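Might you be able to check the backbone structure tokens below? Thank you kindly.
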Amino acid sequence: MIGNTVLTSEHTSDHPLPTLKDSGWSFVPSVNDLPNGEFAATYRDSMRPVLIRGGCSAWKACQRWTPNYFEMVAGSVTVPVKRLSNSEIKVSSWRLAEYARFVMESELCDDGDSTSIATAPYCHDIPLLGLIESLAEDCQPFPADFLSPSYRRHWWRYSQFFMGPEGTVTPLHFDTLLSHNLFFQIFGTKQFIILPPSQTAQCGRRGWRWFDVDPEQPDYVGFPEYKRTTPSVITVDSGDILYMPPGTLHHVRSSSTSISFAIDFHTEKSVLDALAASNGGMPSEVVYYNAITALSVISGISESITFPLYRPYLSYIS
């Protein structure tokens, strides 16, 4: 481990809630096959979540990617590793080989305290496929048509990688750009608890995108309005793809050692909605990255110009 930094979140937001539109869903459908055109029309453009069972199960990644594999193919890479809690994010730097060994050693420990495991070091939200582009070869055939055109040619550059032991948790939050989220579970299983954007006010919002309610053990005394929410619990297994619309609140627990990645992407509509919400407490950095994305998605400015400006977002911590 190299170095250590601490990021402390604001306790509460002094800004009004942004206009997060409800996608109109009360449950998450599970499908076994979803042609590209049907995904866009039925789910993405209608802002409805969906779980695609086995959607990426044919990839080589689902057979190859393990902690041991990353120790071998990317062990010399230095990555940020986080400890997440409801009050702060602590960040330190690890060699990926060192972190992979930590995960493998954690598999051997069956009697650890669940609280300490939940806040264990987590290789969380890092642009690993952009650093080691050969990993994208393990993810074919990739459903590039699910994404907006400006993301398709180099989709892996926009991906965020996750690897961690059983029990690691990402507390309740929404994705900071108010973007679409296409999530690929490669190894192991994760449990998502998700809520529609319209229920933001019932979840104890803190700062821009984090929430104090723990959906697994809700405190109805401290947060009585949470009783009026309609959370959905989704088990995402190896080979599954989960789509979440912009503004979806989600709490994520690794049910086993887990490896996955996600792509946050905008359509013309979602980036305009995000920019319209920029006066609702959105950090200035997020406004900037959404503006850069609008240049690409709406104005069609070349990726060779926009991506270097967007790249720092992939390491942005909020």
